[in-house]
Amino acid sequence: MLPDTSAITRTAFRTLNQVVRPVLATGLGNPLPVGAGAVVVETTGRKSGLPRQVPLVAVRLGDKVAVSTVRGDSHWFANLEANDDAKIQLGGRFRDAKACTTRGPLNVAVLSTT
Q1: Can you give the CATH number for the domain in which 52 is found?
Q2: Which of the four pLDDT bands, split at 50, 70 and 90, describes residue 1?
Q3: Structural domain range at position 108
Q4: 77 in any annotated domain
Q5: Distance of alpha carbon 8 from alpha carbon 6, whole angstroms
Q6: What pTM does this model have?
Q7: Spatial contact of 20 and 55, defined as CB atoms under 8 Å apart
Q8: pLDDT above 90 coverage of the chain, percent
Q9: Is 1 domain-assigned?
Q10: Structural domains counted in the chain
Q11: Measured over all CA atoms, what is the biggest interatomic distance in the chain, rounded to whole angstroms?
């Protein structure tokens, strides 16, 4: 019988996020108005109602930022499906955004800043 790796995966991502999130909060690594980089996306927990922040690789074109995941159980993605209001951290500050989500082999959320 194979071991359950979901707990190990969650712990690994949680640890990585704790290291990466403070760096991205300074604006380092954020995409330019056109390009790729990393951002922090804040969602509202669909069960808890609390703010949740996650660093994600992103592609930006002006006021639109696309982020994605191949993991079908990503909580941040399910949170955006439940509530399309979000915040995205660019240049060291959070901006309000609306999300448009699409499920598929690559689950994609496009965040439009307001």
Answers
A1: 2.30.110.10
A2: low
A3: 6-113
A4: yes
A5: 5
A6: 0.84
A7: yes
A8: 63
A9: no
A10: 1
A11: 50
Q: What is the mean pLDDT of residues 74-97?
A: 95
Using an 8 Å Cβ cutoff, are 39 and 92 in contact?
Answer: no
Tokens of 39: 């951002």
Name residue 22's amino acid.
Answer: P
**Burial (CB count within 10 angstroms: exposed 0-12, middle 13-18, buried 19+), residue 80:** buried
Identify whether 29 is part of a domain: yes
CA 85 to chain centre: 13
Amino acid residing at 18: Q
Helix residue ranges per DSSP H, 1-114? 6-25, 75-82
Written as six digits, the tokens of 62 are 């002006």
> Which residue type is seen at 97?
A
